[in-house]
Fold this sequence. Notes:
Number of strands: 15
Shape: globular
Helix content: 25-40%
Low-confidence stretches: none
Number of domains: 1
CATH topology: Metallo-beta-lactamase, Chain A
Largest sheet: 8 strands, mixed
Mean pLDDT: 97
Order of helices and strands: EEEHEHHEHEEEEEHEHHHEHEEE
CATH architecture: 4-Layer Sandwich
Number of helices: 9
Strand content: 25-35%
Oligomer: single chain
Radius of gyration: 17 Å
Bound molecules: zinc ion
Structural class: alpha/beta
CATH superfamily: Ribonuclease Z/Hydroxyacylglutathione hydrolase-like
CATH class: Alpha Beta
Amino acid sequence: MEIVHLGSGSSGNSTLIRTEETSILIDCGFSMRQLERRMSLVNMTPEKLDAILVTHHHGDHGRSAKAAAKRWGVEIHANMETCERLSLDPVNECRIFENLERRDLGPDLSFLPIPVPHDDADNVAYVLSSPEGRAGFVTDLGEPTEELVKHLTGCSHLSVEANYDTKRLFGNPRYPQPLKDRIHGRGGHLSNKQTATMLNRLVHDKLDSIVLCHLSSDNNAPHLAESEVLCEIGEKFEGVIHISRQEGPEFAQWLGERAAEPLRWS
Length: 266
Ligand SMILES: [Zn+2]
Ligand SMILES: [Zn+2]
């Protein structure tokens, strides 16, 4: 399983996953032009996509779902609320799933959607399974639930949001207090500290790679996110940590490998 973050942050998110038989995107929160451009950098075209999994309807995740269904004819998978709020036709444009319902996407790839708390959205995390192992993709949640941790346990790759540094968020003079409270609250985003604490519960011998994503450009910085996580898990984690930024793709990660391959143009 190859994992390529095409870009991640509040302006857009999309991750390309390729196995031998199956190619999908998780989220399509960039313009169609940007998605096509970013995919082309890794020799991917929309025609080769088997599916797009959408986590939730917020623009930075679902912006191009409707256009992709129409123009590329690609199958969108989402739960009912996300489908409705993206104005997708639940018969012709979207395959509705129930949260916690496992579904096959191809002969060598299946997914499990796990509900996570996020304001005004029925957001899900995804665990993808292939014959080589499992990978978890988690963004946009105010706190990790026990159910989520249970399903992420044993994954050999984790892409997890590290949205904000608490000190930077609360010290940011440009953010009004209610907005700070919302981001920090149960329906907001994970802080670096929350991400580090969750990862601490998920480190095991076969956790080979972690990608920190959806970093706030206003309230976080790559070195803060990485150092907070390393401070928590550094002694026991033997894999690699990378950061996915807004301008991707920068690297390709292979499930089960402890090194990522830098992409030529980045
Ligand atoms: Zn969101
Ligand atoms: Zn988001």
